[in-house]
Structure prediction request, 370 residues.
Amino acid sequence: MDTHASRPHARHAALLRRAALLDFPASADVSPDAEAARLHTIQWLSHHGVFEDSAAVAEYDALRFDLLTGLFYPRATGADLDLGNDLVGWYFVFDDQFDGELGCRPQEVARLVAAVIRITEEDGRTGGGGQGPLLESFRDLWRRINSGRTAVWRDRFRHHWLEYLHSYHREALGRTGTGAGAGAPPRSVDAVLALRRHSIGVQPCLDLNEPFGGYTLPPALHGGFPLARMREATDDVVVFTNDIASLDKELAAGDVHNSVIVQRERARGDLEDAVRHIADLANARHRWFEETAAGLPALLAEAGAGPDVRPAVRRYVDGMRHVMSGNLGWSLRTARYDDRGIEAVSRGRQRPWAHLTSLDELIQAGRSSI
Prediction:
């Protein structure tokens, strides 16, 4: 028997078996411009020096982030989809910086996060330059994302983006046992979820639905019940789905921020029992989401929402659905969680783009404030 050939098949079969525990569909509704966005983002990241050679490009391309973006925004095309795909691509490149030694050095993580945050404080006309591929590509991305947007939307997006960035420092503290609760009994799923709702990066992706759709939700509606709770449920479904899909990869890498792994620790039981438990939680969140969505028209009518608000809310709710089902659809097709993905993070091996910032240079340049 060819064990080398059978192992990938067995891993994929396990992923499909686990995904079948989820009651919501894996979307196959992809934007017609996904292929164009794929080429655009590879060229954009290459232009900024993210990839050192063609092998790095090929490894990145196999992860099919364009498919994820196309599933997230199936009605977006052209420059909008290109921008969304650049954001998703940058997010994963940034995330991969923390898979190695850096992810266990909280002070240096805080310095890097502070450097990214400073770019969000620039006025768009001046600032920065010569800070390396990671920061320079982000500066370009940030300017394009915010260009022409309303102040309400820009503030909303920046708030969500900063929550996402700060989660990396909190995760680094957790890995080193220097955060709150260090030395305590095994963490709870709720505690992991409270952090992962930010680190998963869903909220900035949801924000893009508004400019792509040509509307901006009023702050009271966006931050009030039930939309705020529906956004949280979307976060939870994506986190749980991701933790199930990436389980073998994170076990190989020794990552502790996974709800399935935490549930197994808490229950002291079988891994597959933990998978079923997390799938049940995901299904319960999704059912609540759909039940609440069904009652939204009546709630809006009761609140006296105008005719322009109702279609915007409907599109925003559809955007949340696309993110939940699109994440599952991509997870079943990407190389990030198959044997290639596991090989990429096991035995200390990191992605070719995992060392894009020199923290020593940041400190020497006087940019080390936290």
In short: Residues 271-302 form the longest helix (32 residues). Residues 21 and 279 are 6 Å apart (CA to CA). Residues 1-6, 181-186, 362-370 have pLDDT under 50 and may be disordered. The chain has one domain: 8-364.
